[in-house]
Design a protein that fits this description.
Radius of gyration of chain B: 25 Å
Strand content of chain B: 25-35%
Number of helices of chain A: 15
Radius of gyration of chain A: 19 Å
Largest sheet of chain A: none
Oligomer: heterodimer
Strand order of the largest sheet of chain B: 5-6-7-3-8-9
Structural class of chain A: mainly alpha
Order of helices and strands of chain B: EHEEHEHEHHHEHEHEEHEEEHEH
Helix content of chain B: 25-40%
Distance between the termini of chain B: 29 Å
Shape of chain A: globular
Chain lengths: 262, 324
C-alpha cells in the first residue's frame, strides 16, 4: 500500500514534468475547462431566473447539488483519467508493457495519464460549493457535513466505476464507446439538477441500475431536511459499491484480452 | 530454464469482405476464421543460452514471445519459465524478465531518460546500491552518458534503442526477450547493440531470446536458431546447421591472366568478363578444391574467392523449401 502510494506520487511528478514542457497547452486547457463548466453554471442560473424553483428546489439548493456533482466528477476525472486513454493504450500496444510490469494492472492504467488541466473544473466546483454551502440555508450540523463529504467521495467512486466500465468496454469493442459518455459526462451534466426533475423512470434507473441518484438526490433530501431518515445519509456508501461490478467487468475484459491479444 | 510443451494458440479473426453490401451484412452476422497462430510448439532453453527466433511475418514469433512474457494465455500446452507459469503468476514472473519491444518505447517521451530509469527502479523496487551498479555498468557499456539527460523525444532511433535496452535491464532480469531490437537501426548502432547483448550474455549469464529479421543479428548473436513457420517449429539447431539445411550453393570468382579457362561438369557460369569469371557450384557434387584445381590447370589464376550465398538468401530458400 505504502509502495503504491509512493509510486503514485512518482508518476504524478513525471506527468507534471512532462506537461510543464507544454505550458501554454496546459494553461489553455485548464482555462478552457473552467469556462466549459462555467457555462453549465450559467445555464442553471438562467433556468432559475425564469422559474423561481424547480421541483421545489430553490436556486441555491440546486447550486449545492450542482457543486457536489461537479466536485465528485472532477475528482474522479483527475484520478481516473487513465481509463479515458485506455482504448488508445490497447490500440497502440502500450498495454502489453503494463502486463510485463510487476504491479497491479488497474493502478498502472490509472497512472498512465493524469489530467491536471482538469483542475479548471475542480476550481469551478470548489468556488460554487463555497458559495452554495452558506447560501443553501442548510444548518450545518456534523451529520450534514458528513453527508456532504460522503456525497462527494462516494460520488467520485461511482464516476470512477463508470470510467472503469468505459475502459473495460474497449476490451470488447472499439466502436460504440461514446454510448458510455451518456453516463459519465452526461451524468455530470444532468446532475446539475436533482435527478427527480427528470421524472420517476429516470430516477428509478439512476437508483437501481447506475446509482448516480444514491449520492445526489437522496442525500440532498436529507441535507435539506426533507427526509429525516438517517438511511438517506448513508445511501452514498451503498452507491459506491458500484465499484465492485465495475471491477469484475474489467477483470472479465482482461481475461478476454489475454486470450485474444486484441 | 524455459520449457514450452505443445503450446497451441488459435485466434478467431472476423472475415472482412470487400463491398458495402457485405459490410452491412457483417454487422449482423459475422463469419469467423480460425487461425492457428501456434500449432504444437515445444522447445526448451537452458539458462544462459542465447537463442535466435526467426520466421517470416505472421509466423507466430510475437505470439510465442507474448506467451512467454505472460501477456497471452495459450489454449493448451504448458510453459514453465524459471519454475513458473507466466500467465498464472504474472507478477512474480515478470520481475525476473526484461522485455524490449523494438517497435514500441517504454521511455517517457517528454522527460529526460534518467527520470524514466528512476521510475522503473521504483516500479521494480530495485535497491539503491543495485540500481547504481546496474546503471553505471549499463551506461558504460551502452555509452549512454549524455543521453541520460536528454528527453526521449530528442533521441535518434539508435540512441533510443540503447536506452530501451538499458531500461529493460535495470532490475537484473534472468531472462531477456528482445522483439526485433535492431529494427530500423543504422550499421553502427546495430553493431553496438549486438556487442552489448553478447557481453551481457557472456558476463551475466542472462538468457537471451531474440526475434529478428536481420540475419546478421542471428549470425553474430545466436548460437542456436529456432525457425518457425505457420505456427510450427521447423528447425531447431545451430546457425551452421541452418546453413547446411539449405542447398549450399557457393559462388567462386577467379581472376586470371591470359586465355579464359574452360569450365567442367558441375559448374555453372554466372558471369564472364575479360580476366574474370564467376561460377556457381554445389560443393557436394564438385568440391571446391577440385574446382579450383581444374581451373588452375588451364590458366594462371591471380585471385580466387569463394563465398556462400548471403544469410538472407539462405533463409528465403528455407522458407521456400518449407512452403511458409
Amino acid at each position: 500500500m505504502q509502495l503504491y502510494f509512493n509510486l503514485y506520487f512518482k508518476f504524478l511528478g513525471m506527468h507534471l514534468k512532462g506537461q510543464m514542457q507544454y505550458k501554454a497547452s496546459f494553461f489553455m486547457t485548464a482555462i478552457g475547462r473552467f469556462f466549459v463548466s462555467f457555462a453549465m453554471f450559467l445555464s442553471v442560473y438562467f433556468m432559475f431566473s425564469r422559474f423561481n424553483a424547480v421541483e421545489g428546489f430553490t436556486f441555491e439548493q440546486a447550486l449545492l447539488c450542482f457543486a457536489t456533482v461537479h466536485m465528485a466528477f472532477s475528482l474522479a476525472e483527475m484520478f481516473g483519467r487513465g481509463f479515458d486513454a485506455f482504448p488508445l493504450m490497447l490500440g497502440n500496444g502500450e498495454f502489453d508493457r503494463v502486463l510485463v510490469r510487476p504491479r497491479n494492472i488497474i493502478f498502472q492504467v490509472l497512472v498512465t495519464k493524469m489530467g491536471f488541466a482538469r483542475l479548471g473544473r475542480l476550481v469551478q466546483a470548489a468556488i460554487v460549493l463555497c458559495y452554495a454551502i452558506p447560501a443553501s440555508g442548510v444548518i450545518w450540523t456534523w451529520d450534514k457535513v458528513l453527508t456532504l463529504c460522503l456525497m462527494i467521495l462516494c460520488g467520485s467512486a461511482v464516476f470512477s466505476g463508470l470510467f472503469l466500465i468505459y475502459a473495460a468496454f474497449s476490451f470488447f469493442t472499439v466502436e460504440g464507446l461514446d454510448l458510455m459518455n451518456i453516463f459519465t459526462d452526461g451524468g455530470c451534466e444532468f446532475g446539475r439538477y436533482p435527478f427527480s426533475v427528470y421524472g420517476e423512470h429516470v430516477l428509478r434507473f439512476l437508483t437501481f441500475v447506475i446509482p448516480l441518484a444514491l449520492f445526489q438526490y437522496y442525500p440532498l433530501l436529507y441535507l435539506l431536511d426533507r427526509e429525516r431518515n438517517p438511511l438517506f445519509m448513508f445511501l452514498p456508501l451503498i452507491g459506491s459499491l458500484f465499484l465492485l461490478p465495475s471491477y469484475v467487468f474489467f477483470r472479465a475484459g482482461l481475461r478476454r484480452y489475454k486470450s485474444t491479444g486484441s | 530454464m524455459i520449457t514450452l510443451q505443445s503450446i497451441h494458440k488459435t485466434f478467431r479473426v472476423a472475415k472482412r469482405q470487400a463491398g458495402f453490401g457485405r459490410a452491412v451484412k457483417a454487422l449482423f452476422s459475422r463469419e469467423y476464421e480460425l487461425i492457428h497462430a501456434l500449432d504444437d510448439i515445444s522447445f526448451s532453453v537452458d539458462d544462459g543460452e542465447m537463442v535466435g527466433y526467426i520466421g517470416p511475418n505472421g509466423a507466430g514469433k510475437s505470439t510465442t514471445i507474448k506467451i512467454m512474457c505472460g501477456i497471452l494465455t495459450p489454449e493448451s500446452g504448458t510453459c514453465d519459465i524459471n519454475g513458473r507459469t507466466p500467465w498464472k503468476e504474472r507478477t512474480a514472473h515478470v520481475r525476473d524478465i526484461g522485455v524490449v519491444f523494438g517497435q514500441r518505447s517504454q521511455l517517457w517521451w517528454d522527460v529526460p531518460v534518467i527520470d524514466s530509469f528512476e521510475l522503473i527502479r521504483d516500479i521494480y523496487v530495485v535497491s539503491e546500491s543495485l540500481y547504481r551498479r546496474n546503471l553505471d555498468e549499463l551506461s558504460a557499456l551502452l555509452d549512454l552518458g549524455e543521453l541520460l539527460k536528454t528527453p526521449a523525444r530528442s533521441l535518434s532511433l539508435g540512441q533510443r534503442m540503447r536506452c530501451e535496452i538499458a531500461a529493460s535491464l535495470l532490475h537484473s532480469p534472468k531472462t531477456l526477450f528482445l522483439d526485433e531490437p535492431t529494427i530500423g537501426l543504422d550499421a553502427v548502432s546495430k553493431i553496438a547493440v549486438r556487442q552489448f547483448i553478447k557481453k551481457l550474455n557472456a558476463e551475466h549469464g542472462t538468457t537471451v531470446i531474440l526475434t529478428t529479421h536481420d540475419m546478421q543479428d542471428i549470425e553474430a548473436l545466436a548460437e542456436r536458431v529456432l525457425l518457425i513457420g505457420k505456427g510450427k517449429i521447423l528447425l531447431d539447431g545451430t546457425f551452421a546447421e541452418l546453413k547446411n539445411a539449405c542447398q549450399s550453393t557457393k559462388m567462386l570468382v577467379v581472376e586470371y591472366r591470359g586465355s579464359a579457362p574452360g569450365i567442367c561438369a558441375g559448374m555453372t557460369l554466372a558471369d564472364a568478363r575479360e580476366g574474370r569469371l564467376a561460377i556457381t557450384l554445389d560443393p557436394s557434387t564438385l568440391p571446391i578444391p577440385n574446382a579450383i584445381a581444374h581451373l588452375a590447370e588451364q590458366a594462371e589464376l591471380l585471385d580466387v574467392s569463394v563465398s556462400g550465398i548471403s544469410a538472407e538468401e539462405m533463409v528465403a530458400a528455407l522458407y521456400k523449401e518449407y512452403r511458409i
